[in-house]
Amino acid sequence: MRIIQRGVWAVLLWPNLLASSVPLDCREEQGILSRCPSISQEKLLDRVIEHAELIYRVSEESCSLYEDMFIPLQFQRNQVGYACITKTLPVPSSKNEIQQISDKWLLHSVLMLVQSWIEPLVYLQTSLDRYNAAPEMLLNKTKWVSEKLISLEQGVVVLIKKMLDEGMLTINHSEQGLLQNGVQPQMLESVMRDYTLLSCFKKDAHKMEAFLKLLKCRQTDRYNCS
Amino acid sequence: GAMMRKVILLLLLLCFTAHTRGKLHSPPAKPGLTSCRSPEKETFTCWWKPGSDGGLPTTHALYYRKESSETVYECPDYHTAGENSCFFNKNDTSIWVNYNITVVATNALGRAFSDPVEIDVVYIVKPNPPEKVTVTVMEDKGWPFLRVSWEPPHKADTRSGWITLIYELRVKLEEEIDWEMHLAGQQKMFNIFSLRSGGKYLVEVRCKPDHGFWSEWSSTSYIKVPDYFHREKSTWILITVFSTFTFLILMWLLHMNRHNLKHCILPPVPGPKIKGFDKQLLKNGKSNQIFSALVVPDFPPATSSNYEDFQVEYLEVYVRREQELVLEESKDLHNSCLKSESSTSDCDSGRGSCDSHTLLMAKCREAKEGERQTDRECSPMRTEAQRRLKDWEEEALNYAHAGIVSLEMSSGRVKTWPSVFSPLPRYSSSPLDQQSSLQMAKQLSLSTSSYLTQPGHSTKEALGQSYWDLCLSSKQPHLLNPPTPVCRELQAHSDVNISSIGHKRAPAGPRSPALHTTEYVEVQRVDNKDTLLLQPVVQGCGRMGGCFQMPHGEVYSKVKGVDSDNVLLLQREGMGEDRCPCVEQETNEVTGSCHKSCTVSTTQKPSGCIYTAVPVRDEMATMANGYVDTATMCTLHTC
């Protein structure tokens, strides 16, 4: 009787045996990505987009917080745009350009942006910590953003691998700190510098989100982006 | 000269004043940029508000500079967007780039610069309202709903995902004021339920990019919901009709069963169910008729009912020696009767009738009247006493005739009596024969209570016997008052056994004529088992005989009353002679000490001797039927 029961269980569960033994669409690369059940590309893209949206929202909030607290005058706010550190990056900036570039290039642009902001955010965090009257919420938000950016980077990397079937892009942070390159001599005042960082980051976050959404509508027609 | 100078000065003044009164030409005031908006994140338009122009024709120009370069560009299009606006087309629009825009107002006298404004196109997106808003009424099982659908503004490139819009719509009835808002998200279609039938609705839609401003509301769409109320109404009509039918049926059923219902809810108050009781008579108020109607002719039932049903406690009389049992009829009878007359405190069972002396005495006397006609003597008291005595004698005779009945101890009940009733002394001057005595006994028994009708005189004798028994049980000083009513009543209550005994024994009665000697028995006491202990009393003329000696003058004692201490207050009635013999009591036999007081009266009037007796023992005080008081009394002998 017991043998029969076990036999029945074995028969019912045999597909699972096969399943567990077959590696799914995951590639082991440098120990970062282990065996994992595959996730569809659409879902992955959706998650990345959600991530980017959230990052943008938080950065927008922290920027406005900072503005209200430290940059009261309007003319000071206008001085921001000139010193963004990422302006040197070959990122398309108009719709026409964006629509002309390929998916691959879009993804890579996103990745570039993400990667270039990881370090400056850390710097920003340390700088804000030195403030006397920095509000707790601001610090928390910036901290949160810097953390989430790292996970966004990971997601984009996976996405690139999935969509483009490319090899693993090494997450190299070996680049020289863009910050040093982009430091404006006149921006010595820490307040202005931090504000510049925040606003530039906010803009770039919006860029990332826009690129990803574009990519999404390119990829899947059935979503009916219109 | 001087005149001319004055004129010239005046003219100059006039010119100056004229000049000053007119518009002051001045450089223009500073214009201001009011807003810049981009409808689709591809183009944008800026509007400015000019200041005062200073009286001179002023031109405005917009200059802008992109963040990355210092090159100043002028607005490419001043007309597309209307007056005081600048339209930037796609080629000129760069996103994620800060524009530094300035408006310059220029007139003949000067120019004015507005404050520069930094804008990023991405942050100034305000789309156009949704287009092609259509509202239709859809049916859903008889419950209509509105389906609103729309299109995104044609300029907004949602298809490529360049811009993602979320929509919102609002609905209201025509006559209402407040709108009902619904957030539709990214979908382009929405359903509205819970409509009022026949109502006219207004629907509007607007949209917003994920980071940007809400658009204006679209143009209002009107829709009229058709009347679908009749569907509801038909259902209600059905329900109403059905419930009406049910209600009617229920009412009909109730009406048919109203009597039963009445019985159920308001149970009728049970009316009197006494046989022969007529409610009408009661209503009329004639109580005599009522009560006469109540009298049932054949009650008590003539059938041989079981006298055992009469729950009467019986007295057990323990007879030691048959021969020595002497009946102290007179004493007991007298005592009991007297007591019944005057006692008010004792109303126990079997004795109740004794206490209702009015009725019983009346009957008593009634019965006696006829009999004692011949025996009437001059003194009314005497007559009465004599009569009573005679009665008593007759009854005694009765018992004598009845014969000795052995003590009936079988059932364990009372019955001492018949055997006790040994032949009675014949003290009466006119002895009656047996028959007459029997007759009288019958009559006597008959007269007492009508409810105890027994067939045959034997039963009567039994009654009499029972009566005697009761009289025996009471230890009364020999008072000569005939205890007729009391005893008769007691008869009635008496044991069935007794009566049956009487019944049985009756025929045997005459069989024992031997016992004609008079023997008296004193009730010594009643022990705990309700046994009456009798003791023969020495016949003594002096005592008891004297008491019964009628010719010497009847000496009676009446029980005046019983006080609280169970003391029997006796009143002796002395007739004739003045002397009031006080009799010693037999303390030994009876109980304890009794003392007496005696008052002597010299008059012919009945003297009252008041004897007081002290109850000796408590146990004696409580006899079965409550004859107690008498029992507890010490036997007192009247004079």
UniProtKB/TrEMBL annotation, chain A:
GO biological process: animal organ development; growth hormone receptor signaling pathway; positive regulation of growth; positive regulation of receptor signaling pathway via JAK-STAT; response to nutrient levels
Molecular function (Gene Ontology), one example: growth hormone activity
InterPro entries in UniProt: 4_helix_cytokine-like_core, Somatotropin/Prolactin, Somatotropin_CS
Pfam families: Hormone_1 (PF00103)
Principal location class: secreted
GO CC annotations on file: extracellular space
Compartmental location: Secreted
Keyword Kinase in record: no
Keywords: Disulfide bond, Glycoprotein, Hormone, Secreted, Signal
Signal peptide: 1-19
Family: Belongs to the somatotropin/prolactin family.
Record's protein name: Somatolactin alpha
Source lineage: Eukaryota, Metazoa, Chordata, Craniata, Vertebrata
TrEMBL record, chain B:
Family annotation (Pfam families): EpoR_lig-bind (PF09067)
Membrane topology (UniProt): Single-pass type I membrane protein
Subcellular location(s) per record: Membrane
Signal sequence segment: 1-22
Source organism: Cyclopterus lumpus (Lumpsucker)
Ranges annotated as spanning the membrane: 236-254
A single Gene Ontology CC term: external side of plasma membrane
SUPFAM superfamilies reported for this sequence: Fibronectin type III
Upper classification of the organism: Eukaryota, Metazoa, Chordata, Craniata, Vertebrata
Keyword Kinase: no
Gene3D superfamilies: Immunoglobulins (2.60.40.10)
Protein name in UniProt: Prolactin receptor
